[in-house]
Design a protein that fits this description.
- The protein has a seven-stranded mixed β-sheet.
- The chain is an alpha/beta fold and about 210 residues long.
- The N and C termini lie far apart (about 40 Å).
- It contains eight helices and seven strands.
- Helix 5 links the parallel strand 4 and strand 5.
- The longest helix has 17 residues.
Amino acid sequence: MGFYDNKILPVIIDKACSMSAIMTLREKVVPLASGVVLEVGMGSGINLALYKPDIVDFVWGLEPSVGMRKKAQRNLDNSPVEVKWLDLPGEAIPLEDESVDTVLLTYTLCTIPDWQAALAQMHRVLKPSGKLLFCEHGLADSHAVQHWQNKITPMWKKLAGGCHLNRPISESIASCGFTINKLDTCYADGVPKIAGYMYYGEAVKS
């Protein structure tokens, strides 16, 4: 899987995660980031152009995939904000307690193997006054769609870098010490419903 993971999958993910409907949702969330930002699962750096440099000090970009970090180089070269790479998985964030003003999650929580441990790490590094911004896809609001999400996920995650179609995003965040104070959901235009049910909003430490 090394060649696929490092050469092919980054291209597929970059294309899928930069579709017009997905970018529209990113644009609702990323510009709200401020101060010292931890972007978990930076991928190919799709979000970088959306940051507001006048309110962002710098961005810790956490991305364990070598292929995705290489794919990000063009976006890094044009980034309006400073980026400092962290090449460890989300379950092992090497930052001090309460050192981050904003944690940003965009299309990442679906892929992290131990999402509880990862969210616990995000909670640890986030300042008491900080915010967790998220834009994720996950478990749909329709039983019919959920049926297919559950049926397809075992095969899907093998081909899509560990992506789970059926994670209940808002419940997952709320179960790990966060209070969600803003939440919107929708089906993204032009995206198959099994992968297109979106959660986006803001949470704070409980």
